[in-house]
Amino acid sequence: MLKRLLIAMAGTLVVLSGAARAEVDPDYSVVLLTENFPPYNMAINGKNFAQEDNIDGIAVDIIKEMFKRAGVKYSLTLRFPWDRIYNLALEKPGYGVFVAARLPEREELFKWVGPIGPDDWVLLAKGDSPISLTSLDQAKKYRIGAYKGDAISEYLTEKGVEHSTSLRDQENARKLMAGQIDLWATGDPAGRYLAKQEGISGLRTVLRFDSAELYLALNKDIPDEIVSKLQAALDQMRAEGFVDDILNSYL
């Protein structure tokens, strides 16, 4: 009987020591990478490289607060191009990248925290426009403006939707107000943010033709405990209205 008791106690000590070793180092730090993608992430100086407090945006504000509440250390760098920082997060232990669309083909490549916010494709019209749409095909009879080289413009071309393009997306906001186009094909909330930068408000969404959610994508080596802490912090922030408040502060 005593022998069995000693064996059981020894087994318990082995389990406890293993659990202790499994605890995350309190100095564990995540290397966060992002790109210029207003209004979610952007360098304050407008350049393609920035670090720490020289980066702001909806996602940046949310992620900084999330890491603070979770008690997880991090470093933050904005770099270019997207492919480079995406692959660093994919390949390097302890790295993460945001904001990334959580696509089916990416699902097993990362550990995910989010959603942080939407990335929808929309057609915007002036606030007093009578245009009403239920499909992209119905938009073909209107003058549409889009951002040259953007995925939205390429998608419209694939769908046979004729449109003009501008070298800067905010130019389409001005064209819309000037009556040079009837509809602006852009992202949401990106389009509303760019319009606000031009002093334009009150635009109306007449069609939402694609929807996605944006996340923090973490290297699969990052401990599950870290991921869980971050997700719990974000869930609490959303429940408190913090996430919506940050979104609205930029729009």
TrEMBL record:
<dbReference type="InterPro" id="IPR001638">
    <property type="entry name" value="Solute-binding_3/MltF_N"/>
</dbReference>
<dbReference type="Pfam" id="PF00497">
    <property type="entry name" value="SBP_bac_3"/>
</dbReference>
<protein>
    <submittedName>
        <fullName>Substrate-binding periplasmic protein</fullName>
    </submittedName>
</protein>
<keyword id="KW-0732">Signal</keyword>
<feature type="domain" description="Solute-binding protein family 3/N-terminal">
    <location>
        <begin position="28"/>
        <end position="251"/>
    </location>
</feature>
<feature type="signal peptide">
    <location>
        <begin position="1"/>
        <end position="22"/>
    </location>
</feature>
